[in-house]
Amino acid sequence: MEIGTYSFRDDLLYSKTHEWVKIEGDICIIGIDDYAQREIGEIAYIELPAIENTVKQFELLCQIESVKTVLDIFSPISGSIIEANSEIENSPDLLNSKPYDSWICKLKPSDLSEKINLMNVEEYVKYIKEMTTKP
Q1: What is the pLDDT of residues 5-21, one digit of tens each?
Q2: Which sign, positive or negative, has the C-alpha torsion 107, 113, 117, 119?
Q3: Strand, coil or helix: what is 28?
Q4: What are the angstrom distances between the C-alpha of 79 and each of 33, 55, 125?
Q5: Residue 62 half-sphere exposure toward CB, CA atoms < 13 A
Q6: Contact 107, 21 (CB under 8 A)
Q7: Rounded Cα gap, residues 132 and 27, in angstroms
Q8: CA–CA separation, 100 vs 106, rounded Å?
Q9: Which helix (H) or strand (E) holds 70?
Q10: CA dihedral defined by 9, 123, 2, 29, rounded to 10 degrees?
């Protein structure tokens, strides 16, 4: 689904802070969306979350640095980190060029019912439209 030049996938759930999550069985894959990567600009560095760390929904997961700012990334769902994407650690610009293929981490969720606090693509597109049209 698209809004102007932004692109969003319909097989993901989204948070208000522009992270996405893909639920595959009992694993959640987390990344940032097209809107977030454009807002932050050219990504220069990512501090990946540590494996085996536990995170709570909407708490700090990691940080991304661009040439102009630092962006806090929040976990869209609670759980334990089981894998971090070393490919983006070495090439953080992949988050700009392929935001939906370049995930940040995978986690084992502690409570999948938390997905009710996230938005599907239709709800998220509506949220982005409202957010970008405010004076």
Answers
A1: 889 999 999 999 999 99
A2: positive
A3: strand
A4: 20, 6, 26
A5: 23
A6: no
A7: 32
A8: 14
A9: strand 70-74
A10: -20
Q: Report yes or no: 127 and 16 within 8 Å, Cβ to Cβ.
A: yes
Query: Tens of pLDDT along 60-106?
Result: 999 999 988 999 999 999 999 999 999 999 999 999 999 999 999 99
Is residue 59 packed enough to be buried (19+ CB in 10 Å), middle (13-18) or exposed (0-12)?
exposed
Residue whose C-alpha is closest to residue 26's, from 102, 115, 112:
112
**Domains of the chain from N-terminus onward:** 2-132 (2.40.50.100)
Q: Of the candidates 16, 4, 19, which has an alpha carbon nearest to the alpha carbon of residue 117?
A: 16
